[in-house]
């Protein structure tokens, strides 16, 4: 309909220009010219009305429909990875809790939350190993205290060249590519950039979202291979870390204010 209106407006403008510049012959005298002046004014009024119809009104609703930025609360957000011993000598190994507090990033929340965008960054060197309080949260398999030298050795192995290689790759990035399902329980499809490689990972999440804040929690089982890694092994492979890991997380954030 708008296209037809614009076409009609163009035709009227062409006719109007010819009428004004004298391309139509004037067969009358000065008195008739005064009458034509009145006609011209009526034509101008008509054209203004046409333009008002042809130009769409500003949709102020679009302003309220724009995305809203939320900043990750690094102090309140956390990630935990549960690692289990494996192999013939697994009874000599330890169950480990690998944790991270200090996740940073942004979330752009769209009017339709399923169209939102998530970007997280994790500093590899800030992972902790076997915090006593966190081990207590994970139940019977984690009740046994791990000697400090074993914790230090586990962290050194984790950050070394064979696993996360922190010296070469100091950060891990997580960038959402899609959010599937329906609120509040969704599946976040994300690209995980780790150790110079990109892997697609599905993160199940339960999301609480308000105008000013959000909390996303989830848990999944994931193999080393799904992250582009290989399990650590010792004693010629007789003792290793189980390939299957358990990942738990809670990510929270608050709306970015104008003052920020």
Characterization of the model:
The protein has 260 residues and is an alpha+beta fold. The protein has two domains: 56 residues; 194 residues, Lipocalin (Beta Barrel), CATH 2.40.128.110. Helices cover 25% and strands 37% of the residues. The longest helix is centred in the first third of the chain and has 25 residues. The radius of gyration is 33 Å and the shape is elongated. The N terminus is likely disordered.
- When the domains are counted, the total is 2
Oligomer: single chain
- CA-based shape: elongated
Largest sheet: 8 strands, antiparallel, barrel
Fold-level CATH name of the largest domain: Lipocalin
At a glance:
A hairpin with a 2-residue loop joins β8 (171-182) and β9. The protein is of the alpha+beta class and 260 residues long.
């Amino acid at each position: 309909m708008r296209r037809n209106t614009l076409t009609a407006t163009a035709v009227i403008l062409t006719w109007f220009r010819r009428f004004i510049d004298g391309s139509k012959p004037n067969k009358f005298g000065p008195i008739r010219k005064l009458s034509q002046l009145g006609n011209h004014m009526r034509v101008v009024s008509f054209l203004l009305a046409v333009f008002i119809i042809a130009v769409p009104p500003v949709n102020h609703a679009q302003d309220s429909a724009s995305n809203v930025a939320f900043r990750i609360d690094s102090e309140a957000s956390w990630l935990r990875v549960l690692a289990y011993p494996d192999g013939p000598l697994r009874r000599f190994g330890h169950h480990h809790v690998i944790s991270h507090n200090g996740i940073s990033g942004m979330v752009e929340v769209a009017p339709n939350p399923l169209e939102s965008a998530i970007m997280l960054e994790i500093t590899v060197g800030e992972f902790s190993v076997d915090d006593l309080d966190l081990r207590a949260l994970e139940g019977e398999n984690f009740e046994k205290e791990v000697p400090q030298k074993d914790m230090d050795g586990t962290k050194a192995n984790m950050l070394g060249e064979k696993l996360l290689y922190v010296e070469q790759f100091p950060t891990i990035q997580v960038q959402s590519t899609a959010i599937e399902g329906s609120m509040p329980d969704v599946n976040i499809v994300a690209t995980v950039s780790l150790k110079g490689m990109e892997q697609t990972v599905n993160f199940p999440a339960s999301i609480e979202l308000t105008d000013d804040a959000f909390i996303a929690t989830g848990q999944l089982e994931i193999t080393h291979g799904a992250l582009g890694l290989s399990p650590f092994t010792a004693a010629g492979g007789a003792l290793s870390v189980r390939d299957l890991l358990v990942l738990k997380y809670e990510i929270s954030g608050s709306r970015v204010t104008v003052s920020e």
